[in-house]
């Protein structure tokens, strides 16, 4: 097979990455706006229950990702990579756009959360088919000795998608005002904007050509007749799928979502940091750490994938509790010296005035405590505005956690591609990736938050879930994965007889 020219590979990476970034953007604005969605689409009365219901809906999108991986993975191995992940982009963009049009719970009652759930499931199915297609497509254009470097550009898109979603949300919030964004229709604009981004990406992807490896297989008549059966119905290949899940993607998934999404939720809900400041902390940390996806992807071409990925998991297991404890301590005002206490009136909704106490501390920290009384009871909200020095300490702590993500996520696309043969690669790699990320990783915010509501737990108790999963994956990966790249690489498969395949051994 002729090697893709340097200029050609960069066009391929750009076209693949833009579409994948937009899909991640679409998927994550739901999570970034979870507190507002909870108020809009679920019954009022118990904010914690509404938030958990929203997080459960958010998690549902992750749970169905493996089914999307099976459906679209099979499609990709049968008809090709290009058309399959073009279809996933259309489904994702349409679902996101429609979420922005759904009337609130007050208007249509229980239809609102049901429609949100349906569209969220479609998003999950689409994302289940997108990542495997994009990663496979780029990898099959890349030379083996630089596969980690080139596929790491696809890996950046997940974090950049989160970053772009936060930029758009904060930008719209500033443009329309906090009142309109939170209580009016301003929150809808980030969802509606996605349709423009998707149309641009579709135009770019329509110009792409099929993967050369898949094209060669198709011309030779060697494409799989039944990718699902070949992927999971044969003992040796199914063993590879299980090893990819329990030795790599499961731990990678919980590291990804703990370091970025749960960190965001923790800073907002446990540390009570003011909304814009909390999200700016996450954004700056993402910006600082994102280049390291490329660094660790490139290093995996020289050092192998295993050691880098497992080291990132080990850092998460050892450091999550101390880091989150430090985040909480930085925002804690109980030991600070008070300068002034001022009673002010804050605006809630269009008419109601809510009294609030504004406390200034000697280090420049400001605490706002507002109390609302309604038919459902008394609700107290706290909002902490950090001083500049404390804010940067938080940024560095979150940056450190995102570096863990870059270690486990940067090399993993190349790692998964190299585990499976071309004819069933899309199907085989997509399932363990989306179970590890969609189920184990995607459930982190929901399970961790749920654990903290159990009597006898504290604000750090939710971390035992990702720590436990990462530790298990660390042990399995350490014992059974190989660090030698060449032992994973295979682009050919020999059919020895009906139902028998010759596969690489790890």
From TrEMBL:
Keyword Transmembrane attached: yes
InterPro entries attached to this UniProt entry: MFS_dom (IPR020846), MFS_sugar_transport-like (IPR005828), MFS_trans_sf (IPR036259), Sugar_transporter_CS (IPR005829)
Record-level Gene Ontology MF annotations: transmembrane transporter activity
A single cellular component GO annotation: plasma membrane
Major place of residence: membrane
Residue span, Major facilitator superfamily (MFS) profile domain: 12-486
Key words, A-Z: Cell membrane, Membrane, Transmembrane, Transmembrane helix, Transport
Domain of life, source organism: Bacteria
Transmembrane segments: 12-30, 50-72, 84-102, 108-128, 149-172, 187-206, 240-258, 278-300, 307-324, 394-417, 438-457, 463-481
Membrane topology label: Multi-pass membrane protein
Subcellular location: Cell membrane
Stated name of the protein: Predicted arabinose efflux permease, MFS family
Organism: Flavisolibacter ginsengisoli DSM 18119
């Amino acid at each position: 097979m002729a090697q893709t020219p340097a200029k050609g590979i960069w066009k391929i990476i750009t076209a693949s990455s833009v579409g994948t970034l937009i899909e991640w953007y679409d998927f994550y604005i739901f999570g970034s706006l979870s507190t507002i969605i909870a108020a809009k689409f679920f019954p009022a009365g118990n904010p914690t229950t509404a938030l958990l219901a929203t997080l459960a809906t958010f998690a549902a999108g992750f749970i169905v990702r493996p089914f999307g991986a099976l459906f679209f993975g099979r499609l990709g191995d049968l008809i090709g990579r290009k058309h399959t992940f073009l279809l996933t982009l259309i489904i994702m963009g349409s679902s996101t756009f429609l979420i922005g049009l759904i009337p609130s719970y007050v208007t249509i009652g229980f239809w609102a959360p049901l429609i949100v759930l349906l569209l969220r499931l479609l998003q999950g199915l689409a994302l289940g088919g997108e990542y495997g297609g994009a990663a496979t497509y780029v990898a099959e254009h890349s030379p083996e000795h630089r596969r980690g470097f080139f596929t790491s550009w696809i890996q950046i898109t997940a974090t950049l998608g989160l970053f772009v979603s936060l930029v758009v949300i904060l930008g719209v919030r500033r443009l329309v005002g906090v009142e309109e964004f939170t209580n009016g229709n301003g929150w809808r604009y980030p969802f509606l904007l996605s349709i423009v981004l998707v149309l641009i990406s579709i135009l770019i992807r329509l110009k792409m050509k099929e993967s050369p490896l898949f094209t060669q297989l198709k011309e030779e008549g060697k494409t799989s007749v039944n990718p699902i059966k070949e992927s999971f119905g044969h003992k040796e290949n199914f063993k590879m799928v299980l090893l990819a899940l329990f030795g790599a993607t499961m731990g990678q998934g919980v590291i990804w979502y703990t370091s970025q999404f749960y960190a965001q939720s923790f800073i907002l809900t446990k540390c009570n940091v003011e909304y814009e400041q909390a999200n700016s902390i996450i954004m700056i940390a993402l910006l600082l750490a994102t280049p390291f996806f490329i660094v660790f992807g490139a290093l995996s071409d020289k050092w192998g994938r295993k050691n880098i990925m497992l080291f990132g998991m080990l850092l998460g297991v050892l450091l999550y509790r101390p880091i989150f404890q430090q985040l909480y301590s930085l925002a804690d005002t109980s030991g600070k010296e008070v300068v002034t206490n001022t009673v002010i009136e804050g605006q809630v909704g269009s008419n109601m005035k809510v009294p609030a106490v504004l406390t200034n501390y000697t280090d420049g920290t400001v605490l706002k405590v507002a109390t609302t009384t309604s038919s459902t009871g008394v609700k107290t909200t706290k909002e902490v505005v950090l001083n500049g020095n404390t804010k940067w300490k938080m940024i560095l702590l979150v940056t450190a956690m995102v570096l863990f993500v870059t270690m486990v996520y940067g090399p993993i696309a190349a790692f998964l591609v190299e585990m499976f043969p071309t004819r069933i690669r899309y199907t085989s790699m997509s399932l363990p990736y989306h179970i590890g990320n969609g189920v184990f990783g995607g459930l982190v915010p929901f399970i961790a938050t749920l654990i903290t509501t159990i009597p006898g737990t504290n604000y750090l108790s939710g971390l035992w879930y990702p720590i436990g999963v990462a530790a298990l994956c660390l042990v399995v990966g350490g014992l059974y994965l190989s660090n030698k790249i060449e032992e994973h690489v295979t682009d050919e498969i020999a059919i020895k007889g009906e139902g028998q395949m010759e596969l690489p051994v790890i």
